[in-house]
Design a protein that fits this description.
alpha+beta; seven-stranded mixed sheet; 5 helices; 18 strands; about 35% strand; globular; disordered N terminus
Length: about 300
């Protein structure tokens, strides 16, 4: 009887802990749906990209790809302003304050966050007052109307004092990991066109985190579009302005590219023909030059391979 009572007490304690963390680690599908913009609602955002640096630590934001004056780029939709506005990632630090700190539960399903009782900074899948609520979407009007099927989202690099994990709450609260910065990169997930999703963003230590992300898609006209940007997070009690000085060296001015795959084979063919023609001309010239010389050249002085030696 004592053993059964002990087991029952332990089980009850675990259930109580999970219930206490329900707003953080348990899905609330109806609440999320109610707060999420309806498909196509992105048209209420100001079409021009916002300017000036800003720190966002509360309210709703989304990471997403959009066409900024025809150029595909990853930006942050800031819903903390009215009207909403899109901002460049270099101008935004996402602050994860101590109000987002929580304990890792006893359940082994959350062992990827650390040992039970460890503290993590968690931006939850369901909105909480005083905590940033970041999601991701593919609802920008031009993206929603021109992209074929989905946007491919990749995590390509993680820099920070601790670990980063992005996961979803599945059925019965079972977590589904989308990105895990401790594992081999890049990692990827798909964002269905005209969709809006939220997840749990977990950081295990305070400090500055730089997340390099890439979003790519093919539009219905056959063109491929890619943009790589860096998300800047300030976790814990530090001055969030420090994150602006920690920009990833890989970001560059605008690491984006557009490719029309329908004409790419033609350009490759023309390039190959030029290379062959150039190589033939060089060979003919060298043979003629050798014929005019009175002293033969040794094999060591023969032609070096043409092309890029890098």
């Amino acid at each position: 009887m004592n053993t059964r009572r002990a087991r029952g007490s332990a089980r009850a304690a675990c259930v109580a802990l999970l219930l206490a963390l329900t707003p953080v680690l348990t899905p609330a599908i109806s609440a999320t749906a109610a707060e999420s913009p309806a498909p196509g609602a992105e048209s209420d955002a100001v079409p021009e990209t916002g300017t000036g640096r800003t720190v966002i630590g509360d309210g709703h934001i989304d990471i997403g790809a959009r066409f900024d004056h025809g150029n595909w780029t990853v930006q942050i939709r800031d819903d903390t302003t009215r009207p909403a506005i899109w901002r460049n990632t270099t101008d935004v630090v996402l602050r994860v304050g101590d109000t987002a700190k929580t304990d890792v539960p006893e359940s082994k399903e959350f062992g990827f966050l650390g040992d039970p009782g460890d503290q993590v900074w968690l931006l939850p899948q369901v909105q909480r007052d005083g905590v940033l609520w970041p999601g991701w979407n593919s609802q920008e009007p031009e993206v929603a109307s021109t992209v074929d099927r989905e946007v491919n989202w990749q995590l390509t690099g993680v820099e920070g004092p601790g670990d980063f994990v992005l996961f979803l709450n599945g059925s019965f609260g079972t977590p589904k990991i989308l990105f895990d910065g401790r594992k081999k990169l890049p990692q990827e997930t798909g964002i269905e066109v005209n969709s809006h999703v939220h997840g749990n963003w977990a950081f295990t230590e305070p400090g500055t985190y730089l997340l390099d992300v890439r979003m790519a898609a093919r539009t219905k006209d056959g063109k491929s579009h890619t943009s790589t940007r860096t998300l800047q997070f300030s976790v814990g009690p530090q001055d969030p302005g420090r994150a602006f000085a920690a920009k990833s060296a890989d970001e560059g001015p605008d690491a984006a590219s557009d490719t029309d795959e329908s004409i790419a084979p033609l350009w490759w063919g023309v390039g190959a023909a030029l290379v062959v023609a150039t190589a033939g001309a060089v060979l003919v010239w060298r043979r003629g030059s050798s014929g005019r010389r009175r002293t033969p050249s040794s094999p060591a002085n023969g032609a070096r391979p043409e092309g890029d030696q890098r």
